[in-house]
Amino acid sequence: MNGVPMEHGLVLAAVLFTLGLGGLMFRRNMIFVLMSLEVMLNAAGLAFIVAGTGWEQPEGQVMFLLVITLAAAEASVGLALLIQLYHRFKTLNLDVASRMRG
Amino acid sequence: MMELLTTFSTAQPTAVLLPLTFLLPLLGTLILAFSRGTLGYGASALTGTASVGLAALATAMLALGFAENGPEQLTLWTWIAVGDFQPGISLALDGLSLTMLGVITGVGFFIHLFAAWYMRGEAGITRFYTYMNLFVFSMVLLVLGDNLLLLFLGWEGVGMCSYLLISYYYTNSANGWAGFKAFIITRIGDVFLAIGMFLLFSRLGTLNIAEILELAPQAWQSGDTVVELAAFLLLGGALGKSAQLPLHTWLADAMAGPTPVSALIHAATMVTAGVYLIARMHGIFELAPAALYATGVIGALTLLMAGFAALAQTDIKRVLAYSTMSQIGYMFLALGVGAYDTAIFHLMTHAFFKALLFLSAGAVIVSCHHEQDMRNLGGLWRKLPLAYMGFVVGGAALAALPLVSAGFYSKDEILWQALAADQQGLLVAGLIGALLTSLYTLRLIIGTFHGAAKSDNARHAETGRGLAHGLPLVVLAVLSTFLGAWITPPLGGVLPSSPGEGVTAGHGALELVAAATALAGIALGVWLFGLKRGWLRPANHGLGAGLWQLWHHAWGFDLVFDWTIVRPYRGVVWLLQSDLFDGLFRLLAWCVRLVHLGLSRTQTGKLRGYAVTMVAGATLILLSLALVIQGT
Amino acid sequence: MILVWLIVIPFVGGLFCWQAERLGSRATRLIALATMLCELLIALWLWTQLDFQLPATDGSSTQWAIEYRLPWITRFGIDIHLALDGLSLVLIALTGFLGVLAVLCSWNEIVRRIGFFHLNLLWILGGVVGVFLAIDLFLFFFFWELMLVPMYFLIALWGHSGSKGSTRIGAAIKFFIYTQASGLLMLVAILGLVFAHHANTGEYSFSYAVLKETTLSPTLAFWLMLGFFIAFAVKLPVIPLHGWLPNAHAQAPTAGSVDLAGILLKTAAYGMLRFALPLFPEASQAFAPVAMGLGLLGIFYGAVLACGQRDIKRFVAYTSIAHMGFVLIGIYAGTPLALQGVVVLMVAHAFSAAGLFILSGQLYERLHTRQINEMGGLWGRLGSLPGFYLFLIAASLGMPTTANFVGEFMVLFGTFAIAPWVVALASVGLVLAAVYSLLLMQRVHYGPPKDDTPLKGLDPREFCMLLGIIALILWVGLYPQPLLDTTGASMGEIHRLFDAQSSPLPEAR
C-alpha cells in the first residue's frame, strides 16, 4: 500500500472538504446542504483512513467507523427535518426558516 | 442570679428598701402598660401616684437609716462579666444619691399627684402615667447606679421617657418633632459620655465610680491630656442632658409636653442629671482644671444667654424653660469653681421652686382652657389665688428675694464660692444673671396675673379645686421659702470641700451686693412692667424690635444648627435616596444588557450565515496560529 | 448522632408539610410548627446537657462539645463532619426560635401553595442549621448553597411586588446572583486552600481542624482570606456588596424577611468567626483596618439611607446594614469582649429585626400598604401594636436594658483599646440610629391620623409572638450571662488565634 503517497490522499480529502463547505455556504436548497454535509464527513473519513494507513495505526479506521455512524445518524435527523420543513413552508429554501433570529 | 438570692436571704432593711425605690415605679409601669386600656382614669392615676408615693416613703425610711448607718452598697447581680469588664446591677447609697433620691421621689410624688388634677379628662391617661413611672424608675437608677454603665442605663432611660412625654400629644406632628429634637440633641451628648466611658475603662480597667475616683489620681497627674479629654467628654454628656450651650436648643421646644412633665423632667430632675454627673465624677474634674474651668464658663454663658432669652418670651412655659436653663447655668458655674456641694444645694432648692412655678403655670393653663400665651392672659390674681401664691413664692425664690426665699440661700452661696475661688468674671456674670432673673420673673408674674384680662379664656378662668390641685402647690410653696433652705443635703464626705469653706472675709459684703442686685432687679421690674406697662409688649421697630427678635429666638442657635447640620444631612439623605453603590452594580447589569443587545443582532436565524461566520472564524484562528508558529 | 437529627428534622418536616397540604392548611401549619418547636427544644435540651466551658486554650481538639463524623468521599478527604460548640448552639437555638416565629407570622399571610411554602421555609432552616454545624469545608459549602435555593423560591413565589417596577422575581434573581457569585468565590478559596494543603502534605482534606494548621505563604493566605471574606461580606452584608438586601427584604413575605434578617445574615458573621478568622489569622489581622473601615461605612451608609426610604420594610433592611457594621467592627477587633459583644449583638439584632419585620407585616395586613407616607397618626388606631413598635424601635436604637445595647456597647468597649478612633466614629452611628428610628416612629405613629376608624388590634397569636420577642430582648439585655458563658470558650479560642499574631506588637494600654 505504498503506491499512493499520503500527501495525495490528504489533498484529495481537503479538496472534497472544501467542496462540501462551499456547498454548505452557498446553496439554499436543503437537500444540497445535507449532501454537502455528507461530502464533508466523508472527506474527513478519507483523511482518517489515509493518515491511519500512512502511520500504520488502527485508530484511523476506528475513527472512520465512527464517522460513518455519525453520518448515518446525521442523515436520518437531517432528512426528518427536511420533511418537516417542506410540510410547513412548502419549500426547501433554507433562508425561509429563520424564525430563531435573536 | 445567685447573688440576688443571697442578698435577700441576709435581708437588712436597706437591702429591701433600696431596690424598692425603683422597683415600685417599675411595678407601676408594668401594671399600667399591661392593663391594655382596662384601667379607668381613677385607677390609672392612683396606680401611677401611689407607686411613686410608696417609693418616696421608702426613700424617707432610707434617709432615717442613712443617718445611723451611713453609706450602703448593694449588688443585685452582675450584669455582664467578660474578663475585666464586670459592671453589675449594683446600687450605691451615699449622701449625694440620697439627696437626689429625695428630690426625685419627693418632688416627683407631688407632681404625680398634681398631674391627676391636670390630666383629668384627657384620653390616654394610662399611657401618661406609664411613661411618668418609667421615668422615675430610670431616674432612680441613674442616681443609684454605682458604675457608669448602670448610670448610663438610667441616663438613656430618662432621655427616652422625656422623648415619649414631650410627644405625648402625638396627633400634632410639631410635638413629635419637639420630642425628636430633644432626644437627638441629648443623644449627641450621650455619645460623648459613652466615649468618655470607653476611655476611662480602657485606661483604668473598671467602670465602678468609686474605683475610678480612687484610681484616677494614681494614674494621672493633674492636667494630663487623657484625663482632660475624659473630663471634657463627660462634660459633653452633661451639656446635652442639662441643656447648656451649645446643646441647649431642645429644652424650650420640650415645653410641648404636658405641664407636669415639664415640672418633673424639664425642671426638677432630668435636666439636672448633668450636674449630678459632674458632681459624681468630681475626682476626674479635679484632675482636669481646663475642663473644670470650661464648665464654669459654659455655665456663665448659658445663664446670661438664657436670661436674655427669657426676657423676650410670650409663652409662660417658655419663660420658665429659659429660666431653667439659666438656673442650671448657675449650677454649672458652681461646679466650675469647685463648689460641688453648693451646686447640689442649688439643684435641690431649684427643684422645689421650679416645680412649684411649673405646677402653678399648669394650674393657670388648665384654668384658662389651655391658654398659655401671656399676651392673652392677665388679671388672674383674684380668680386663681393659689396659682398666684405659687407664682409669687416660686418667683421670689427664683429671683432670690433676700432672707425669706430658698433661692436666696443657694444662689448667694454660689456667688460667694465664685468670689472665694477668685473667679471675678464668673461672679460678674452671676450678678448680671441675678438682675435678669428678677426682671423676667417680674415680667412673668405681672404679665400673667395683673392688668386687664386680654382674652375670653382669661376672663372665664375656672378656679382649680381639690386636694390633688392644692396640696402639691402648698407643700412646694413651703419648701420654696427659707424653710426649704434649712434642709441640708448630707454631702459631707462625698464631695470635696468648696473653695469658700472656712473663709469668711468678704462674705457679708457679697451677701449685701447679691441682695441689693436682686432687690434692684425687682424694683426695676416693677417700674418697667408694672408702672410703664408698654414694656410688656415687644417694640415694633428700631433696636428694640431687633433685640426682641434676637432674644425671642434665643440668639438664633436653632437657625445656625438648621443650616449647618440639619439641612446638609437632609441633602445627603436626598442625594443617596437611590442607593449609590447599588447603582454601580445596576450599571454593571446595564452593561451586560447592552452587550446582550449587540450580540443578539448577530443571530440572524439564517443557517448559511452561521456557516459562513464559522468558516471565517476557523480560518482566522488557523491563520493566526500559523503566523504564531512561523513567528517562533 | 443528635447533630444529624438537628439537620434532618427540618428537611423531613418540610417534606411532610408538602404532602400534608392535601389534609388542609391547618395540618400543614401545625406540622411545620411542631417541627420547629422540636428543633428548638432539642437545642435547648442540649444547652442544659452539655458543658461549653471546655478550656480550649491549648488548641487541642477539645474545642467541640459534641462531634459526629462519617466518611463521605474518602478519595478527596471529604467527611460528613459535624460539631457543636457554644457559638453554634446559640445560633441553632436562635434558628429554632425564629423558625417558630416564621411559621407563626405566616399563619394568615400565606394562603397559596401552603405545603410548598413550608417545605421551602423548613429547608432554608435545615440548610442554616447545617451551615452552623458543618466543620468540613465541603459540607459547609454544600449547606451554604443549599439554603439559597428555597429562599429564592420563597421570594419569587410568595413575595410582594413593590412599587416602581421592583418585582419579586427581580428581587429573587438579584438575591440569587449575588449569593451564587459570592458562593463561587468561596468555593475557589476553599479549593485553593485544599490544594495548598495537598501541595504541602500530598493529602487531600477538607477538614477544618486539618486545614487550620496549613502553613500558607502570606500572599496566598491573603487572597484566600479575601475570597472567604467577600463571600461572607455579601451575605452580612458589607457595603458596597449589599445591593440584594433591600430588595430581597422588601419583596419577601414576612416569614422570609424574618429568616433573612434573623438568621441568614448571621450565617455570614458565623462564617467569619468560624472560618475567615481562624483559618487565616495573619491575613485577617492585616486586613482588620480595612474591614473596620467597611464596618464604619456600613454604619453610616445604612443609617443615612434608612432615613430616605419610603417603604417600611426597605427601611428595616437598611437599619440591618447599619447594625451589621457594628458586628463587622467587633469581629475584626478580635478582643474577647468585642467578640462576645458580637454574639450578643447578633442575637439581639435577630430578635429586634425579626420583631420589626413581623410588625411591618402586621401593619401591611391591616393597611394594605407598606408606604410610610401613607401612614401617620396610627398610634391611637391599632390597640397595643404601637406599644410593641415603640419597644422594638427603642431596641433598635440601642436603648439600655435591651439586648442591642449590651451588644453594641460590648463591641465598642472591646474595640476601644484596639482602635479608639473607629469607636469614636462608630459612636456617632448611635446618634444616627436614634435619628432613623425616631423618624420612623414619627412618620408612622405620630402626627394627625389619616382616618379615624380603629383598625383591628393584635390577636392572641400576634400578641404572644411579640411578647416572647420582647421578653427575650429584655432577658439578654439585663442578664446576658448565660449566653456569654456558653460562647465564652469559643470566642476565647478565636481570640487566641487572632491575637497570637499581634502579640509581638506592644499592648495598646
Q: What topology, given as strand order, has the largest sheet of chain C?
A: 1-2
Q: What's the story with the biggest beta sheet of chain A?
A: none
Strand fraction of chain A equals under 5%
Oligomeric state of shown chains: heterotrimer
Number of strands of chain A: 0
* Mean pLDDT reading of chain A: 88
Percent helix of chain C: over 70%
- Based on secondary structure, the structural category of chain C is mainly alpha
* Largest interface (C-beta under 8 Å): B-C, 58 and 59 residues
Alpha-beta content class of chain A: mainly alpha
Q: What's the end-to-end separation of chain A, in Å? A: 52 Å
What's the helix count of chain A? 3
The global form of chain A is elongated
- H/E element sequence of chain A: HHH
List SSEs of chain C in N-to-C order. HHEEHHHHHHHHHHHHHHHHH
Ranges of chain C where pLDDT stays below 50 over 5 or more residues in a row are 503-509
Number of helices of chain C: 19
Strand content of chain C: under 5%
Characterization of the model:
The complex is a heterotrimer of chains A (102), B (632) and C (509). With 102 residues, chain A is mostly helical. Chain A has 3 helices and no strands. Chain A has helices at residues 6-26, 30-55, 59-89. Chain B has 632 residues and is mainly α. Chain B has helices at residues 2-9, 13-33, 41-69, 95-118, 125-144, 148-166, 173-204, 209-219, 225-241, 250-253, 259-268, 273-280, 282-287, 289-311, 316-336, 340-367, 385-398, 406-420, 424-449, 456-459, 467-480, 482-485, 507-531, 542-552, 557-575, 580-601, 607-631, and strands at 72-78, 88-93. The longest helix of chain B is centred in the first third of the chain and has 32 residues, at 173-204. Chain B is globular, with a radius of gyration of 31 Å. By secondary structure, chain C is an all-alpha fold. Chain C has a two-stranded antiparallel ribbon with strand order 1-2. The chains are: A mainly alpha (102), B mainly alpha (632), C mainly alpha (509).
